[in-house]
Amino acid sequence: MIAEAQLHPDPDAAVQRELGHVFTELQPLCHGRLASVYLARDVKSRARVALKTILRVRFLAPGNAARFRRQAVAAARLDHPHIVSVHRHGVSPSFLWYSMDYCSGGAVGTGQPLTVIECIRAVQHIASALDFAHRGGTVHADLRPLNVLLDESGAIRVSDFGILRALGGVAALETVQCPPGALDYIAPEQLVKDGMAGPPADQYALGALAYEYLAGRPVFGATSAEDLAARRRAGPPPDLTALRPDVPSRLAEAVRRALSDAPGDRFASVAELAAAVTGPAVPIVLWPEEATPDEDADDDLLPPPFVPRPRRRLWRIMGVAFALLVVAAGSLWFALSTASPPLSDGGVVSPVPVSTPEPPSLDVERAPPTAVDPVADPPVQRPADPRTAPPPWPPARVVVSSVPWAELYVDGRLVGNTPVVDLRLPAGQHRLRLQRVGFRPHEEVVNLAPGQTLRVTAIVLQQETAP
């Protein structure tokens, strides 16, 4: 194989030469063994993006470029608040490349262990992204710390869905010398020849991530596929509670189960893993595609559906009765106020005397009218033509998540359990309230602008203390 240094003595110059017409302001962020990342500005959209380039010299097998294109298209379709969006992709003479959202916060958990609450929050956000992709038929197959990023708002987002799989899977990693622990996120079934990664493999990788977030070190620290298989045969990794006494047994047991060698011994889904980490009950997640609104209604302008509560039924009945009483009283008043005037003795309606003002003389300057004639007919108000009426304001989109999951109320109406994704609300002020038994409620007021996307993802509920 041709040496990379001979093909590209200066990879940055090659990127500028081959992709300079697509991206400007190219700034190298990092150079890895498989890919390089640049901060760039898209010439077409003028957006600031992260550009990832992969040297084609490593992946010259027939069909790799076509598989890469297909996987990039599939990744671009993943629209989720905890997934890094892919914008453009392509193949140049020297690179496979794609651009995505730039996450300025870097990778999660690099340098030091996370607190228990931080780890639970990370597992919840990552599991939400993986579960969304799995239900759409996409598997990540390469979840590792460098693919879990923080954006400018502090939200955790997952990148690089399926890219390594398109390049040949684990075999692609074996083309380079991996640092210790780089293969610890690969599930045992992926090491089998022609092993296909499915959703259970992503769950294994999430368990390995959670272990590293808490322990501050990789699960095994393997340097090759053979070394990883040997370490697994030697026994399970050390128990988390022995390394971190502050780790709850529930959390340690959930991580241990996710790291099971057999896929059938793991949780049924990453959503169940997240539920086991955050609490004993499985949360109900409200997803946009599961909603069944009225087809004739304008979803963009409607508030969240109201979920009635049984103990408020009496109040609702009283409210309806009061409304009917108000309508009846208004009808009676209207009938009395618009009754015909009394008839004269001859059966003819008595005319209302109206004085006709004298026309002003021609040599007197007319004064502007100071009052409206009470007898004159009001001007005719024509209804606005709906074809020329201005369009309604676009709704705002809100994403809310919490640790642990909780019930979300918006303006007193129950929306669902967090995480709530792509909640559309009219512009204006709204009150958010999160509550869960055993935890103190969290409440805050948000002001939404038309078309705004607001992520409220840093809520940590405090457990109520016993009296």
What features would you describe in this structure?
By secondary structure, the protein is α+β, with helices and mostly antiparallel strands. It folds into two domains: 10-278, Transferase(Phosphotransferase) domain 1 (Transferase(Phosphotransferase), domain 1); 283-293 and 394-467, Carboxypeptidase-like, regulatory domain (Immunoglobulin-like, Sandwich). Helix content is 28%, strand content 20%. It has twelve helices and 15 strands. The strands form four sheets. Strands 1-2-3-5-4 form a five-stranded antiparallel sheet, sandwiched between helices. The protein is globular and about 80 Å long. The model is unreliable at 1-7, 281-315 and 336-378 (pLDDT under 50).
Radius of gyration, whole Å: 32 Å
Distance between the termini: 71 Å
Shape: globular
* Overall CATH class of the largest domain: Mainly Alpha
Largest sheet: 5 strands, antiparallel
Topology, element by element:
Layout lengths: L3 H4 L3 H9 L3 E9 L3 E8 L5 E8 L8 H13 L9 E6 L3 E7 L4 E2 L8 H20 L12 E3 L5 E3 L4 H4 L3 H4 L25 H17 L9 H10 L5 H4 L5 H10 L11 H9 L34 H25 L58 E8 L3 E4 L2 E5 L2 E6 L2 E8 L6 E7 L4 E8 L7
Parallel strand pairs: 9-15
Antiparallel strand pairs: 1-2, 2-3, 3-5, 4-5, 6-7, 7-8, 9-12, 10-11, 10-13, 13-14
Helix pairs in contact: 4-7, 4-11, 7-10, 10-11
Give a brief rundown of this model.
It is built from 12 helices and 15 strands. By secondary structure, the protein is α+β, with helices and mostly antiparallel strands.
